[in-house]
Amino acid sequence: MSEFQRVGLLGRREHPGVTHVVSELLDLLDGRGIDVVLEDRLATLAHFETRAMQPRDAIGANVDLAVGIGGDQIVELLIYYLYTLLHLLEYLHLRIYQLNQETQDLIR
User: Fold this and answer.
1) Is residue 66 part of a domain?
2) Total number of domains in the chain
3) Range list of β-strands (E), 1-108
4) Is residue 1 part of a domain?
5) DSSP characters for 36-48?
6) What is the pLDDT of residues 16-45, one digit of tens each?
7) 23 is in which domain, residue-wise?
8) What pLDDT does residue 36 have?
9) 85-94 residue pLDDT tens
10) What percent of the chain has pLDDT over 70?
11) Alpha carbon distances (Å) from 24 to 77, 93, 97
12) Residue 93 covered by a domain
């Protein structure tokens, strides 16, 4: 289970590669069961118009994590780090659960 229940994606749709990056992030986040909100300007990109959308100034108050997409090389690193962070959070959640179970077994 992820610490992030709702993630907002913001960005500049005119930058090359943004559509691809948004698609990759949506696949990753959807696969983890994380609710995603798109900035309304991103949602107008091809096939994103059916997604939840909000104006840029409203997203920050309604999400646990906001990800800005700029269209430069940093985006690939962002995807990598977000993917790694989600895996780490899942591992830590599982390990804490295991430790709790072991503690309960010792108490009994």
Assistant:
1) yes
2) 1
3) 6-11, 35-39, 53-54, 65-69
4) no
5) EEEEHHHHTSTT-
6) 778 888 888 888 899 989 999 998 887 677
7) 6-107
8) 92
9) 887 888 788 7
10) 83
11) 13, 24, 30
12) yes
Q: Which residue has the tokens 């700029």?
A: 70
The answer to whether the CB of 48 falls within 8 A of the CB of 62 is no
For residues 54 and 67, give the distance between their C-alpha atoms in angstroms, rounded to a whole number.
14
Instruction: Name the strand (E) or helix (H) holding 58.
Output: helix 56-59
Q: Which residues share a beta bridge with 68?
A: 10
Q: How are strands ordered across the β-sheet holding 35-39?
A: 53-54, 35-39, 6-11, 65-69
- 3-state class (DSSP) for residue 35: strand
> Which tokens belong to 61?
């108050």
- 33 phi and psi angles, rounded to 5 deg: 75, 25
